Amino acid sequence: MVDVTGAAELLGHEAEMLAVRLGHAQRLGNMGWAEWHLHTGETIWSDQVYVIFGRDPGDGPIPLPDLPEHVEPADVATLDRLLWSVVQGVEPVQAEFRIRRGGAAADLRDLRVVLEPLSGPGGTIGMHGVIQDITGRRRAERMVSESRRQLLEARERAAEERHVMLALREAILPEPVGCLDLQQTKIAVRYVPAEKTANLGGDWFEAASAADGRVLLAIGDASGHGLPAISRMAQLRHALVGLAMTGQGANRLLAWLNDLVMHQLKDTTATAIIGHLDPETRVFAWGQAGNLAPILVRGGEATQLAQPRGVLLGAAPGSPYELATTRLLPGDQLLLFTDGLVERRTRDIDVGLDLALAAARRVCGHDLDGSLDRLLADIGGPNPEDDACLLAVGILS
């Protein structure tokens, strides 16, 4: 004999559990279902649709004729097309539009609605479907889109700023094409800008014949990045060119530049190497201010010159600068460089210096210009974080 009461209780329990699961699914998906009957005017909403519309269940669902009053005015036409498509067709249709939840204009919600017609003996008698609140998804998409737009604008601004700064550098410090050919001497120069726009800095060089027949050779790096560093670089280089007209030695020129930085370029420091090369005697008389010593390439071997005493420009007033002399031989190459050539955030500076020494062994005085390109490639190419200057001198046989 069938236990009718037990079976009914079981079916009732399963129906209750199914209803609970459906309620969970609607809350998790922030979606609900609705029906509108055209002939009777009856409207049926699931509990979650009340939540989506911010409506008290005690007020009942919104009748279909009143629904446009809750839709954002700009989207009413979208709702009209959706409803017309449902009435005219037999397939489900969908659309997205915004509503003012709870009648508050500020609380706009994005809805995705999928509807299909309810068919009866005389044709379409109503419609039913699913309503989902997709406000969070659309808001996230708009945030991503806005972030992408801002990123593109920032990249465009950075590219424009880089172009302006490089153009300004070129106007202040034009880079010679190829080598500068002097008496029994070749000179080649490379300025290597940082890969990152914001890190264009104050590296500079000078190579020119002096009135007494010597060759003035200098490199330097003013602290900072961007236009302020380029401005400081220009002041230092122009000051050196003027001071060099006195014919004073490199150590005296460094002392004057130190006074300039201390008194005129506040909150600034700079490194520099300044030297004079006598083409007749091949003696290079030089001094340095906080810069790595030059590399001498002789007979296929590369070594750094012994470094004379000298502190950063702007570090202390009245600092003494020593003068060192190096006699160059036919076939020698001398490489002056700023720290951006060998220093990388991802490696120790000694590692970069070892790479530069190894690459310098292959520098050829008869192809000095091409040798610098190969040297730069061998040590890892442009520095992402800092610009660099490289000045090479070749003594012809």
UniProtKB/TrEMBL annotation:
The PPM-type phosphatase domain sits at 182-395
Q: Select a single GO molecular function from the record's annotations and give it.
A: phosphatase activity
Protein keywords: Hydrolase
Query: InterPro entries under this entry?
Result: Bact_Sigma-Reg, PAS-like_dom_sf, PPM-type-like_dom_sf, PPM-type_phosphatase-like_dom
PANTHER family under this entry? STAGE II SPORULATION PROTEIN E (PTHR43156:SF2), STAGE II SPORULATION PROTEIN E-RELATED (PTHR43156)
How is this protein named in the record?
A: Serine phosphatase RsbU (Regulator of sigma subunit)
Q: What is the source species?
A: Nonomuraea fuscirosea
